[in-house]
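re: ur question from yesterday

yeah so i grabbed the chain u mentioned. its 117 aa long if i counted rite. heres the sequnce exactly as i have it in my notes:
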Amino acid sequence: MHPWLDRPSLQDAQQRKRATPKHALVTRLEEKADKQKADTKALLAFRVAVFKRDGGKCRICHKKVVRTLALVANRAEAHHKRGRRVAPEDRYNVAAALLTCAACHQAIHLGHVKVPK
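ran it thru and got these structure tokens back, copy pasting raw so excuse formatting
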């Protein structure tokens, strides 16, 4: 007997239900997109709050920083005092972050500058 003869017929295969129905797949994809949208909004609100609290100045070198996507040394970046992996609960906690310029932020991660308390 050939192995392909033991396979279910096309009708049997069509009658079996999918492990995850198509409508549920769409719902899960929509939920994921909604979560990403909410996460993006929360992250933007967090960055704006840190920028306002610190008055638009780097907490390390006290230079004026700008909110931009361009890769410039005086670009505003929010640094988490404790890493996001170490303390995921502090991801959007404004009190657990400080505003830095891109140059100082890199220096912090390279260990050249200590983070103020």
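noticed a couple things. The chain has one domain: 17-110. also The beta strands are 76-80, 97-101.
anyway ttyl
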